[in-house]
Structure formats: C-alpha cells, structure tokens
C-alpha cells in the first residue's frame, strides 16, 4: 500500500474541493505539507512575535537566512528517503530507481533525483549566504537574498520534478513556480529600495 499524496489547499486548483469538504483540511496525516506554505505562515507568525516583543525583525531574519538554506537542504534528503518530490523519468547515469512499494515515487522507473538536486543547489545557496554575510550592507539584505536565491533554484529544480505539479497552464508551470514569482517580486522591490536607502545614507555622511 503506497502513500496517499494530498494536494495543497491553495494555488493548485483544489480550494473549491476543500471548501466543499472542509474536514479534509484537518487530515494532516494525509500529507499536503509544502515548504512555501509553512514558510509564509512562519514568516507572518515571526513578524507578529518580533513586533510584539519589540525585536528587530530584519536583524533576526538575516540571522536565520543561512540556517534556512541549510535546513531545507537537509530536509530534502528526507524527501529522497521517502520518494517524495520525485523527478521525471530519465536516462542519465545518475538516475535513481525506487523499489520500495511504500515509496511515494513510482517504482521500477529511473527518475531524476530531484531531491538531491535540491540539496546540492541549496548547499550552494548556504555557502553564498555565508560569503554574503561578511559583505552585508543593510539590515534585511541577507534574508531578501535568500528569498530571491531560493525562488531561483526552486524554479530550476521544478523543471525536473514529476510529482503533482498543479493545474495551471495545463501543468506547464508548477504551483511552486507561480508562488516563487509572487514571492520574488516584492523581495526584489524591497531589496533595491533598501539598497537605494543605504546608498543615499552613505552619500549623506560622506558630504
């Protein structure tokens, strides 16, 4: 008996079905967890908590950024172990074949090891953020860089994934790629806004 993969509630066309079957939203044992959903919820909760306790939101976010990249990289190894987030059929030398009937991935078919792809690119992001931290110019820079880099590498890996991708544009663009775009636009705007403020401040104190 294989695992049942529950679709996400938002962004993949399942919202109407869940509104008709609201009790299904609470059946967390059937899956449905996604990084972006957890990240956006945690971000909102973190901002609320920081404001409540008069903490510096941007400073805390910068401190968390490298750890987020490393944590997701390690988490994808768990996905690899369970067969979650599996890739498309492939004939590359490093393709993997799942044989356990309890695997979430199709068995007996060589697949792109997209979980390993994710781990590798996120380790690169982790290294870039550690390098960037020594050159940071303004509060929030590291966290915003993480958001933009994650959206970029996530969208790249999505090209090779073959688990349920969503229903938009007949599956041509995955749900995660759509969310990546929605997340990266405000991150880019904030990044360049804060960078401009930093440059103006440097210009003022140099005069």
Q: What's the overall geometry?
A: elongated
Strand order of the largest sheet: 1-2
Order of helices and strands: HHHEEHHH
Structural class: mainly alpha
Number of helices: 6
Please provide a written account of the structure.
With 207 residues, the protein is mostly helical. The protein has helices at residues 15-20, 35-52, 57-82, 114-133, 141-158, 175-206; strands at 96-97, 110-111. It has one domain (34-206). Strands 1-2 form a two-stranded antiparallel ribbon. Helix 3 (57-82) packs parallel to helix 5 (141-158) and helix 4 (114-133) packs antiparallel against helix 5 (141-158). It starts with 14 loop residues before the first helix and ends with a helix. Residues 1-7 have low confidence and may be disordered.
Brief characterization of the structure:
By secondary structure, the protein is an all-alpha fold. It is 58% helix and 2% strand.
Secondary-structure map with pairings?
Layout: H1 15-20, H2 35-52, H3 57-82, E1 96-97, E2 110-111, H4 114-133, H5 141-158, H6 175-206
Antiparallel strand pairs: 1-2
Helix pairs in contact: 3-4, 3-5, 4-5, 5-6
Task: Please describe the structure with a list of short key phrases separated by commas or semicolons.
207 residues; mainly alpha; two-stranded antiparallel ribbon; elongated; disordered N terminus
């Amino acid at each position: 008996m294989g695992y049942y993969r529950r679709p996400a509630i938002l962004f993949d066309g399942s919202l109407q079905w869940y509104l008709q079957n609201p009790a299904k939203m609470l059946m967390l044992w059937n899956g449905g967890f996604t990084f972006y959903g957890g990240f956006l919820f945690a971000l909102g909760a973190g901002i609320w908590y920081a404001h409540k306790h008069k903490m510096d939101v941007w400073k805390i976010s910068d401190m968390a950024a490298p750890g987020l990249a490393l944590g997701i990289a390690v988490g994808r190894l768990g996905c690899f172990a369970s067969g979650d987030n599996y890739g498309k059929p492939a004939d590359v030398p490093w393709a993997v074949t799942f044989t356990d009937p309890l695997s979430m991935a199709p068995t007996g078919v060589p697949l792109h090891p997209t979980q390993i792809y994710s781990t590798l690119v996120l380790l690169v992001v982790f290294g870039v953020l550690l390098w960037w931290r020594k050159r940071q110019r303004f509060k929030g820079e590291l966290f915003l860089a993480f958001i933009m880099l994650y959206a970029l590498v996530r969208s790249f890996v999505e090209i090779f994934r073959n688990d349920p991708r969503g229903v938009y544009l007949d599956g041509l663009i995955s749900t995660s790629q759509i969310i990546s775009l929605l997340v990266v636009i405000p991150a880019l705007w904030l990044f360049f806004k804060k960078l401009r403020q930093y440059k103006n401040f440097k210009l003022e104190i140099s005069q």
